[in-house]
Amino acid sequence: MKKIEHLGIAVHNLQDSNALFEKLLGVGPYKQEEVASEGVMTSFFQNGPNKIELLAATDPTGPIAKFLEKKGEGIHHVAFEVDDIKAEMERLKYEGFTLLNEKPKKGADNKWVAFVHPKSANGVLVELCQEIKE
């Protein structure tokens, strides 16, 4: 793993949270994007080399809606940038981690993504991210 790619934060209201984080960070979001397969609308903020992804549910039965119902607003996941997502998934499986995905899928911000189950990572949902190269 190369670095933390972003922190994902689950929010109830994307518009209100965008305004809050704009005040906090001093910049507006650089991108908003819906990921229909996950039932989520995302908003990305750049802060120096770091990124924050706000996640608001668009599907009341999707993973973000379930997270918000159970835990409320807050940090949802930590995403790590990787060079080769398939190799990293194999490495983590070999090391005994439970993956939530059998293969990478297209996520937000032009990334291939896969997730490590929080039960195998001290309660932290870990996302692996690899930039999609055309």
Q: What's the arrangement of secondary structure elements?
A:
Elements: E1 3-11, H1 14-25, E2 31-35, E3 40-47, E4 50-57, H2 63-71, E5 74-81, H3 85-94, E6 105-106, E7 111-116, E8 126-131
Parallel strand pairs: 1-4, 5-8
Antiparallel strand pairs: 1-5, 2-3, 3-4, 6-7, 7-8
Summarize the structure in words.
This protein has 134 residues and is an alpha+beta fold. It has 3 helices and 8 strands. It has helices at residues 14-25, 63-71, 85-94, and strands at residues 3-11, 31-35, 40-47, 50-57, 74-81, 105-106, 111-116, 126-131. The chain has an 8-stranded mixed beta sheet. Strand 6 and strand 7 form a beta hairpin. The protein is globular. It starts with a strand and ends with a strand.
Brief summary:
The chain has 134 residues and is of the alpha+beta class. Helices cover 23% and strands 39% of the residues.
Question: Which descriptors apply to this entry?
Answer:
alpha+beta; 3 helices; about 130 residues; VOC_core; Methylmalonyl-CoA epimerase; 8 strands
